[in-house]
Amino acid sequence: MTRETAPSDRTAIIVGAGIAGLATALSLARAKWSVIVLERAARLRGGAFVVGFSGMGYEAATRLGLVEELRARASPWRPMQQVDGDGRGLAWMSEASQRALTGHRTVSILRGDLEGALYGAAQHVADIRFGQTVTDVTDGADGAVVTLRDGSRVAADLVIGADGAHSTVRRLVFGPEDRWRYDFGVKVASFEVIDPPTSVREKTTLLTAVGRSAGLYPQRDGRLSAFFTFVRDDAGTADAAASLGRAYGDLGWVWPDLIQRAVSAESIFAAPSDRRRADADSRDDHPGRSRRLPPAESRAPHRVDGRRSPRRPRQARRAPSDRVGGCRSAALRRARRCVGH
Ligand SMILES: Cc1cc2nc3c(=O)[nH]c(=O)nc-3n(C[C@H](O)[C@H](O)[C@H](O)COP(=O)(O)OP(=O)(O)OC[C@H]3O[C@@H](n4cnc5c(N)ncnc54)[C@H](O)[C@@H]3O)c2cc1C
Q1: What pLDDT is stored for residue 278 in this prediction?
Q2: Segment holding 270, helix H or strand E
Q3: What is the rounded average pLDDT of the residues 295-320?
């Protein structure tokens, strides 16, 4: 691994190598932190649904120096058609009108391509470990101590749970997720369509009907990213394609064909649509240094108590040399922050 940053005396552990984890890793590494990313999956997960971002998201991509690469990988602009369940056109918008409406500081991109661009940059500045996860997080004397799946422990100045909607870090630090969860009662499903029907191949197609909405987004390689939402059918939570069939089975036009393809799709992403409330300030009921940060606060490096992390006096940073020998990563050996092997 080539490191673009100088060795640092501040170590951050980020759990999760999704969009949030990789973007944070890149940001912290450029701010001269030593960064370890722990990803449970064996490899990047990819994802065939389109993520559109502008505003703060675009600003963040600009600061990370990734905008040109993201633009190169972006989903193409296409004329947009709004249709009903039988494919009757209800409204249209040209590419030029879409561009004028959204402005130039907007990118729509497949989730997997966004993740790939972030990983391409982050892998050179962070120690990214696949197939690894965390089993415990505790407050240490001057930071946090994270226990990994293999039983080893790593000390860090900052621990970030970027491990998705059902965050293990949040559960370990703040307790069961039920308390934070707000369920919209809706499910989303997404998959890639190879060789799509002609009528949707060259246009972005949107459907909005009572209790369901769908979007079909042509990609550069002729494939289609298909995205469906529907009121959750609890009988079918285990089988996403079957749930989709029940929710969209009464429609005509290309919809039955597309739903059928969901059954044979190489992979289908399906998840309940819910959110985690960030309104409750965890400092009120969690007296330690750990804190749930609302999104805007995540932009700058903070300690777990929310303040900017001061540099510790050199002597206090040093760990006994017999512990240093057990450190796996070069970053930790340099920072001498590895304990418990
Ligand atoms: C169909 C669809 C369309 C969307 N469109 C948009 C959009 O247009 N604009 C937008 O801004 N957002 C959009 N979103 C939301 C956006 O995709 C998500 O908010 C974003 O992907 C979340 O990224 P994340 O990194 O926080 O979490 P995730 O993508 O869930 O990544 C979490 C990572 O942590 C790993 N992990 C989980 N548990 C552990 C563990 N215990 N230990 C180690 N690793 C772990 C996972 O394997 C994963 O790699 C859309 C979402 C969907 C489903």
Answers
A1: 55
A2: strand 268-276
A3: 34
- CB 183, CB 274: distance < 8 Å: yes
Distance CA 17, CA 52 (A): 19
What is the three-class DSSP state of 15?
strand
**Where do the CATH 3.50.50.60 domains begin and end in the chain?**
11-77+105-178+280-339
Residue 293's pLDDT is what? Answer: 61
- For residue 170, is it left (φ>0), alpha (ψ between -120 and 50) or beta? alpha
Q: Is there a contact between 182 and 175 (Cβ–Cβ < 8 Å)?
A: no
List the one residue out of 242, 199, 245 whose CA is nearest residue 218: 199
Give the integer Cα–Cα distance in Å for 58 and 60: 5
Rounded CA separation 204/82 (Å):
9
**Closest C-alpha to ligand 1, atom 29:** 18
According to CATH, where is 3.30.9.30 located in the chain? 182-275
pLDDT in tens, 154-199: 999 999 999 998 899 999 988 887 877 777 778 888 888 988 999 9
262-284, pLDDT tens digit by residue? 877 666 776 766 666 655 445 44
Predicted-complex ipTM score:
0.93
CA 92 / ligand 1 centre spacing (Å): 31
* Topology classification of domain 11-77+105-178+280-339: FAD/NAD(P)-binding domain (3.50.50)
Domain 182-275 has CATH 3.30.9.30: yes
- Provide residues with CB under 6 Å of ligand 1: 15-21, 38-41, 45, 49, 51-53, 57, 111, 133-134, 162-164, 168, 188, 190, 227
Tell me the per-residue pLDDT of 189-210, one tens digit each, with 9 for 90 and over.
Answer: 888 898 899 999 999 999 998 8
Tell which one of 13, 14, 19 to mutate to probe ligand 1, the residue whose CB is within 8 A of the most ligand atoms.
19
* Sheet with 212-218, edge to edge strand ranges: 89-93, 80-83, 204-209, 212-218, 224-231, 181-193, 268-276
Residue 131: DSSP 8-state: T
